[in-house]
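On clarity, I found the account of how folds are encoded harder to follow than it need be. An entry of this sort, consisting of the sequence and the corresponding backbone structure tokens, reads as follows:
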Amino acid sequence: MTAVGIKELKSKLSTYIKRVHQGEIIVVTDHGKEVALLSPISNERQAIKSLLEAGKASWAGGKPAGIKGIPIEGPPLAETVLEERR
């Protein structure tokens, strides 16, 4: 993993983007403090993009609403989680 300051990143952005494209993760620093990561697009994001482009999925933005109309049996999930923590 490489660290780079904002000033250098701005002056050599194309070089760093090529490195990220090849799989490297770049840590961006501001006055020596880590503030961001530049990383390749994840496999999950690529898979979702492929589904959207193929018309097999749709997304209008925002948070998913969840599934409606399917009865769920058993105690609520919150109760189960609290019980497991005890």
User: Anything to note?
Assistant: Strands lie at 2-5, 26-30, 33-38. The two ends are 40 Å apart (CA to CA). DSSP finds four helices and three strands in the chain.
